[in-house]
Amino acid sequence: MKKSTHLSLKGGLFVIAALLFSVSSWAQQLPYKNPNLSSEERAKDLISRLTLSEKATLMCDISDAVPRLGIKKFNWWSEALHGFANNGNVTVFPEPVGMAASFDDNLVYKIFDAVSDEARAKYNEATKKGLENARFLSLSVWTPNVNIFRDPRWGRGQETYGEDPYLTSRMGVSVVKGLQGPADAKYRKLLACAKHFAVHSGPEWSRHSLNINNLDPRDLWETYLPAFKSLVQKSDVRQVMCAYQRLDDEPCCGNTQLLQRILRDEWGYKYMVVADCGAVSDFYTSHKVSSDAVHAASKGVWAGTDVECQWDNHIYKQLPDAVAKGLITEAEINKHLLNVLIGRFDLGEMDDDALVPWSKIPMSVVNNEEHRKLALDMALKSMTLLQNKNNILPLSKSKKIAVVGPNANDKPMLWGNYNGTPVRTITILDGITSKLSANKVLYEKGCDLVEDKVTESYFPQCSIDGKKGFKVSYWNNKDLKGDVVATQQIVNPIKLTTAGQHEFATGVRLEGFSGKYETEFVAPKTEEIVFKCGATGYFELFVNGESLVTYNNWRTLPSRIPYKVESGKKYKIEIRYAQLNNWEANIEFNLGKEVDVDYSDLLKKLKGVDVVVFVGGLSTLLEGEEMPVSYPGFKGGDRTDIELPAVQRNCLKALKEAGKQVIFVNCSGSAIALIPETESCDAILQAWYGGESGGQAVADVLFGDYNPSGKLPITFYKSVKQLSDFEDYSMKGRTYRYMSDPLFPFGFGLSYTTFAIGNAKLSNPEIKSNQSVELTIPVSNKGKRSGTEIVQVYVRMVNDTDGPLKTLKGFQRVEVAAGKTAQAVINLPYNSFEFFNRNTVKMEVVPGEYEVLYGNSSATKDLKTAKVRIL
Asked: Which residues form the PA14 domain (predicted)?
């Protein structure tokens, strides 16, 4: 009996095992699981197995898992603007506008090849740990920003590669190729994204409702579209992001002219279109072109937007309702989901890691020595010397110098925006100090970035339960409820961050936590004090039970809250904080009274020091994306004027009047009207936001260990009066292509040596269709130092009455030894002579005479002219 039972059980198990093997084998033969098929074939098969609601969720940027088909959760939104963003211990390279100043697209390629390695390594490590695929830790990166930096007031211009379509195209193509990996590889390393399509170049404050209509088609085709076309046709970019605003009455994410006729029909784009976050919901909340979320979802898909991004409550999940109402068909949804799933199969994230070479990239590549060197090399090449009176630079290492200014010892300023957090950062003060003995450097902050007052802190006068400072309680949830997991007493102004995987306190999680900060303050006298605060996450400040400010920011921005206090009165102060979304957590708080800046104390401290390096400019606390910042001259992340903040101008003036030699290191992501500074400063170095090694690069240039070679990728205007209305997208009077009276022109930058550009030899002054002309241009170094010159070639159509004055069509970095001559060889292909033809309403090469201008800046005085005839 026992034996037969045993055999029966064994036979049953055998049958079950055979059935399981059969099912497993069948599953392996399912087309969507077969890595030998094309991504398109696999995607079509997978779509046939999905329900309508599953299809809808896969078209959201946070795509939920479909366990029954083995589909994992996927996030489309990660960032890699100049390093893998919103991640700690990564390499942080210079801000893109600074990279553009290098005119070195080969180095840009190497940098973004390194960035993609770090992104893959971070993703691989998270996967091994079984962590859920989260925002900002994914294989889709929404980079590069190839919008044209048409107006210096735009706070996000720092994210771009400048004001020129050709330079932006060259740089953008290199970014995409570096991120996505070799074109002949089976799998993409990452999926890059060309954004924001199209025309978006500020302002931030009206981007959700602005209608750009009556735009001259010549401006559209010659200025705003070329970089996007180049990325589509020359780099095989796998994502295009549509912008927030309307173009000719239609929101860009619902604009069939942009997303169908131009992008797909004319340019042949065949991959994904993703929406900027909240852009589709803007259809009914801001633009009022849709009645509700269901209509907006169907409108977005019909127009060609394949993936919707939303902070939460994705409206694409309502697509089944749109189908039920007859607003869209399931067949149309299938067509757009196909683009999405092809992208995922191309990444290999649905296949076994053994098949995907990129899955083997280890964490050891992250911020390795090679990547650190790339960061320094680019920072060095980005340094742009604008003024050097009496050759005051380079500085002697034997003299004592003073380092002054709000950006001198500021690490986050160097990181720019859309950034990660590096392992280590070399501030400009650090860099300068490394060049000199300790007794030869004097440091004083001197003044604030923008405020003309300083805060005398009352934090030391706060106490609670007989203890100095703030009592803090933490919970490992977002609601300040349940058991307290940690307490602490903070006795100095609050400044906490999870950047670099730092806990707010031992036992507090890095995400999904909350905290309450409590103290009491007795006013020493009746006066107005200020609360200085900022946070990434939810922040609310109470005083005696009254809520003074509430906000939920995705980055830390400074807030100044004035408050009247009465002598001897006790004030109970409470802050409630919660970490939300997927952002790093940050909180800052101080309180005190403001006193006027008095430069006399600064000048006393600088007695006996002749040379002052003033490190100022702007920072991403002032310019950036849709920021709730309200200082004089700033609005919503943009600027309303373009001068250096008055407090810095006054400090520079005081230093000059005291007889100091002043070297101004200007850190900014945009052009500043520096006319007063050309008078008060002996030298001006434009240092941008230089990344983790920016301070080393500045010091290497100041002391002559590196000969600067950077050139301006943007025009520096004399005054905001040279600009037309910010919301006017006409190019008339904007950028070097349409104005000729700048303070510093596009393409300008000084060296510690002198170069002479000789007469070019043209391979053929007359060319026919699809032929090219090659320029050989002698570059002579007349000085005593070796250096690098950037030779630029511009083209202008003769007798073009309403076109650009000139347009960049070629450039080359040329290293020349002291006293030697080298040759720049620059090829102009046939399409270098392509301009907008109003008669045919398209871009084309028109037979006739063209001027070819070449030299070392866009200024007329720096250019020589040759003629080319198109037959």
From this structure: 465-607
